[in-house]
What we know:
Helices cover 56% and strands 0% of the residues. It is mostly helical. It has helices at residues 18-27, 32-43, 60-64, 73-85, 89-100, 110-120, 124-136, 154-160, 177-183, 204-218, 221-236, 243-259, 265-274, 283-292, 296-312, 316-326. The protein starts with 17 loop residues before the first helix and ends in a 7-residue tail after the last helix. The chain folds into two domains: 3-136, no CATH class; 154-270, no CATH class.
Amino acid sequence: MQPSEWAPEFANGMSNHLPMAVHALQQMQASEQQIDKFVRHYSRRLIPVAAQTDVQVHSWKDAEQLRGLDTAYLPLRDFFLTQLQFSIGKQNLLQFINQLAPGLSCSAFHPLIQLAHAMENQDTLQMANALAYWVMRYRELSWPENPQSSPESLSATIENLLLKHSWPQGRLGKASVADDMLQVPLQNNFNRLVFKPEVTALNLAAMEKAIIGLYLATDDFTILHGVTATYAVRVITTFSAEPTLILEPLWQGLVTAYLSKGFSTVHHTHTLASLQKVSVYSVDELRQRACNSLDDHSIKLVAVCLKMYQISADKDYLLAASRKLKNDNSATQ
């Protein structure tokens, strides 16, 4: 089956990473044999997309009415595909991104990440898939009711966030990253927190630096999604009329992801100390090992880390990619 014939989620509600991982493998110059091997392995878990004929989507107003209802994936995809194929497809894409931006972190950032992969690959069908999935799972996060805003960088905001308030230890949800994040505003001290940014603090490069540093300090699956989501925002901000429309919900999503895991300073200290034992692979070895991997998260993370290292020359990306691959047994095959 073609990637577009699979549903956007597994039967258990987890997101389908197949088109994203295949694109990442292509970017890293994987061979046809490596890509075929990954596709065969990964496709075993996927389910075909179900036919839906009872809903009609003829306009953005129709699509907007379906936000967050978890239905109408195919009608939504057909609508977006038609809109993106028009000669004004680029303007339409800009409109859709700006309209959906407040729900940027829905479904653990996966619609956002899928859209960025599709845009890099100039794949209109996958763009339509991603937008349909974004509408289907649309959910806006909450800000604390505290009227104060944080004048500091994302890194400083996260570092200082819980100094004055108690917070549960360990992950807040039970089922998924998305579930963990939705539990955050339900906690007793949530509305006392201060993390809404001032516009002057919304700097993408600083946010990228903050999230790769946090990933190194946590080695956490949820924060890994923050790294790939932040790169996805780098891709799609060129299609947003107002970068603030994208950067503010990204900030909100990254802080919420951090809060959803109940990290401790002891955890950070231990994880950072363990990094001393991680030897850093060369760029070529990272690429080769990632192309051998059968782990979709390893593949996607390493592809982002290689691109961000090329952009920023920040060796933290090589360290993060190396640690991930050292823990990925399939990458040595």
